[in-house]
Amino acid sequence: MTALSARFARRFPGGPAIRADLDLPLGGAEVTVLFGPSGAGKTTILRCLAGLETPDEGTVRLGAETWFDADSGVNRPPQARRVGFLFQDHALFPHLTVAGNVAFGLAGLPRAERERRVSDGLSFVGLSGLAARRPRELSGGESQRVALARALVRRPALLLLDEPLSALDSPLRIRLRGELRTLLTSLEIPSVVVTHDRAEALALGDRVAVVTEGEVRQTGPVDEVFSRPADVGVARVTGVECVLPGRVVAEADGVVTVAIGGARLAAADLTGARGEVFVCLRAEDVLLERGAPAFRESARNHLAATVTAVTPEGPLVRVALDCGFPLSALVTRPARDELGLVPGAAVTAVVKAASIVLVPRGEKGGLSLLQEA
Q1: In what order do the strands lie in the sheet with 276-281?
Q2: pTM listed for this prediction
């Protein structure tokens, strides 16, 4: 299995250093997402992989091929790295037809081969009938697919996509997530996709590398990283709304008891964290019941809570709670009405022990995030 190995640093005068430490298995059509907030360094990492920017130190290798090695002076230009690059704004040439845009970069091939590749590329992305159109005559989704076809006809060993959906309006972006995922997984080309959108990362990726504050903090299968963040910085970036300092005070039979102020929570012992910890909870894992908690023997925590705020978020409603510590829950609008969720209402917050992630206190990024909390 060919692997992408990237260990480098790119420094900017008067600015941050962007560091990559990646080992990605790139078998078949696996999609790896570089995920993190805007400004975290994701695009810089992607451009260094493509050869569009030069790191100040380190190496980039694809299998046995060395694309960059600062110590030995190796720095293959983009055209020698066998990568296809899909830019954020698609970067189509307005004076060329769709066919002309797709053919760009195939100038060294015989005419018949160029025409065959263009035809095959447009057929693959479902645009065979649009070869003679200009970019101004295309929709946002069509422009994206033309740009993808242009990247594919060069037969790259690696496909790089920089925020491929961000230039589209929200309804179209949501619709094209599934379409792009289908296209990427139908290729026999591994791909790396940059996005700051959590829903896109979940929809597009097989694996994810979380980038924050200029560094790759965690890599792994998408579901594993999003459900079990390695540190508090990753927890914040991946959408864990509640990150609170606590202490493990007891353990028995695979369950630990964590003290948060005057409250006690049971958490599944999945990380082995002990002593001072951060308790990480997602709003989507918090269930609400009407009234005060009754005594129950179960693997769930039942917390007496008071509603402090109710905020609509599209089809859902975010409910802010005071459980002796701040907590958030996401419910549907009908559930809000049925439960009578208004500020001051008394409810029970129900949290499964397995939904609580414990991160050892003092992990990188913990201090600043504790201050934020």
Answers
A1: 263-268, 255-260, 242-252, 276-281, 357-360
A2: 0.75
